[in-house]
Amino acid sequence: TPLSDPSITRTFLFPFLAEKVSVYLPNIPEPTCRAELMQYWMNFSLDDKTANKMLWISDGGSKVCRRTEEVCPVLDRPERYEYSPQVLCKEGIWNMRAYWEVEYSGWVVIGATYEGAGRRANSGPSGLGENEESWGLCWSGTCYQIWFNGLNKDIKDVPFCSTIGVYVDQPVGIISFYVVSGEGAEREVKLLHKVKTTIEKKILPGFWMGIQSSCTLAKRAE
Description:
Elements lengths: L8 E6 L2 E6 L11 H4 L18 E3 L4 E4 L19 E3 L8 E9 L2 E7 L19 E6 L4 E5 L2 E5 L7 E7 L4 E8 L6 E9 L6 E7 L3 E5 L5
Antiparallel strand pairs: 1-2, 3-4, 4-15, 5-14, 6-11, 6-15, 7-8, 7-14, 8-9, 9-10, 11-12, 12-13
């Protein structure tokens, strides 16, 4: 039956209008390979309104880079990260599953944060994984590390990989990080770490950027 398809989308057609409404189906087994993860692919775009002034957004909102301490000439905004060299995506994750991939270079933290987590100097630590409202993964130079609430855990025996995949099942409370290797249709994933928690509010993908680093959100052809 159509309801057995975990990627089901109901399409309602009206004159001059086609609206897609995603349906969250509970009690579906967790993905175990990249092909299964790809059923939940979501094309994200960077929100330049949240980007710290040291970050440069390009390629139609799919790439962020930080060069030095050089500041991008943009207006200050309440939603912009004041001190953390960080940027969020426009699209949030709520009552759904989502998967995305990021190609990166340099020292970066890839993760997700609650939409309402603090971004200004007076709101406490705001970097990914520095508080109770965000999670982050980074390459330390010798191993991967998962960060939460200012504490980190080493993930050993996994070599460096320039592409990271992230899977979120918000209702179940799962955030999984993967390394993505191979080329084209032969690409596969290896689970780095799975966070099991309670995700009580909408979360957004985010990126913390060190000097001379870049992140590019992979796009999947529609």
